[in-house]
Amino acid sequence: MTTTATAAAAAVRDIPESHLDRALDLTYLAHHLAPAAETRAYHRALLARCTRVGAYEGDQLVGLVAAHPHTLSLPGGELPCAGLDFVSVAPTHRRRGLLTAMMAELWRRCAAAGQPLAGLWASESAIYGRYGFAPATEADRVEIDATVPLDLRIAPDPRPLRLIDPADAPALLDPLYEASRTRRAGRFRRDERWWRTSVLALDAPEDHPEGFGAPRVVVLGAPGETPGGYAVYRTRGFQEGSGAPGAVLVRELEADDAPAAAALWSYLTGIDLTTTVRAGARPADDPLLRLAADRDRVRITGTVPCLWLRLVDVPAALTARSWAAPVDLVLDLQDAELPANAGRLHLTADPDGATCAPTTATPDITLDARELAACYLGGTRLRDLVRDGLVTEHTPGAARRLDAALETEWLPFTGDDH
């Protein structure tokens, strides 16, 4: 067990299972939550499966950082990723260096566990940028006028659509989801528990947001054949008290190709007694906007950062992903939180692989670890960061060459929130 003294005379150490309720009390205090008993039990089960780092003042738990063991898809592969959660500091102990001490301990544990990446959803973005995190994926919030079925510019896939029992969905849908992960970076590998709890809400506390019912699952394809796509969604009828219209809320939609996507969107916008379809997270390159014959009926109501990524082991991260074009550059990497990453790195990469090793050569680009994290999955262009003054280009054209090597056919996307 590692113990680290902080400026507040606290100690950073493991949180034992016997202190799980203390950890939840601290989380609810820091985040102003008062969940029902069923939700608390759900959170307790989640926390029990995490790596847990706590800051203690005597026997009092005053800080908490937890991490789920995840596997994240990359361009051309995947890597273990620590998914941070339950990050909390008691309001009486803020600005004492507790979070910094807990994060330092977490980085040590990531190294020991072979996790070159860490990710989170930021409640306060100003905090996590200081620790080397940056938004690596973005999502669009979409709203469709479904007063009449959506007219599309291509013919939908003609295969039949069928509703299936959500309890049967994990085994049927996971192969299609996994195929999507190989195409698009930023997605987490799921087990059956994740499907049942986080996607289908089968083993989670009953939650019907804004009057929406339980999740339903529609699949494209006849029984016995490999599905061409699926959608997980909820519906709501007209709300007489509030006047809210009937609506469809899309949790997830996956399709093999554009005709399959067209079939699913046609179905969702044609559900009786509903006039709006809302999707809280769609990829920025979703074909829906181009498929709609009447573009005015499909609105992007917001674009939000999703996965905040941190490269814990930069050489391991850079050599694990695929590269779209040859590149040979020296990066001068700044990393105040993880000095082992800092310094000059000679990156040589092409579609056959990559090497990344320390060097004393003159740098082509100087950048911080958070900017490298933003570009790592292919969702941010380095030359934009150069133009914004966040990255320094010493060799003309170096940023464009690195952008060409980092480019992906599909933009990264993260639809899950833990």
Summarize the structure.
The protein is of the alpha+beta class and 418 residues long. It is built from 12 helices and 20 strands.
Describe this protein's structure.
There is one protein chain. The protein is α+β, with helices and mostly antiparallel strands and 418 residues long. It has 3 domains: 4-115, Gcn5-related N-acetyltransferase (GNAT) (Aminopeptidase), CATH 3.40.630; 139-304, Aminopeptidase, CATH 3.40.630.30; 313-406, SCP2 sterol-binding domain (Nonspecific Lipid-transfer Protein, Chain A, 2-Layer Sandwich). Helices cover 27% and strands 31% of the residues. The protein has helices at residues 20-31, 37-48, 98-113, 125-129, 169-183, 192-199, 258-269, 288-291, 314-320, 369-376, 382-387, 398-406; strands spanning 4-5, 11-14, 51-57, 60-74, 77-89, 117-120, 134-135, 138-145, 161-164, 216-220, 229-236, 247-255, 276-282, 298-305, 308-311, 327-334, 343-350, 353-358, 365-368, 392-393. The protein has an 8-stranded mixed beta sheet, with helices on both faces. Strands 9-10-11-12-13-8-14 form a 7-stranded mixed beta sheet. A 5-stranded mixed beta sheet has the order 18-17-16-19-20. Strand 16 and strand 17 (343-350) form a beta hairpin. The longest helix has 16 residues, at 98-113. InterPro entries: Acetyltransf_17 (IPR041380), Acetyltransferase_Eis (IPR051554), Acyl_CoA_acyltransferase (IPR016181), Eis_dom (IPR025559), GNAT_dom (IPR000182), NAcTrfase_Eis (IPR022902), SCP2_sterol-bd_dom_sf (IPR036527).
